[in-house]
């Protein structure tokens, strides 16, 4: 599934993606944002701002918040 950076959140919500499809979309958008040197991208489902690996590495330490793209391997307990 291709996602254009300018697509509206409403369109993505209407697609009714599975969790695995959404995860694949996050990876695609994250990789594109990192390739463009961006520190954030918008989550296509919620519209929330998400930190990229670039920003998290710039902070030089883990914040232990369970960030989606944590370069330090921290996983938040559920």
Give an overview in words.
With 78 residues, this protein is mostly helical. It has one domain. The chain has three helices and two strands. The chain has a two-stranded antiparallel sheet. Strand 1 and strand 2 form a beta hairpin. The mean pLDDT is 85.
Write a brief caption for the model:
By secondary structure, this protein is mainly alpha-helical.
Strand content: 5-15%
Structural class: mainly alpha
**Count of beta strands:** 2
Spatial gap, N to C terminus: 29 Å
Which word captures the global form? globular
What is the element layout, followed by pairings?
Blueprint: H1 9-14, H2 19-35, E1 40-42, E2 49-51, H3 53-58
Antiparallel strand pairs: 1-2
List keywords for this structure.
single chain, mainly alpha, 3 helices
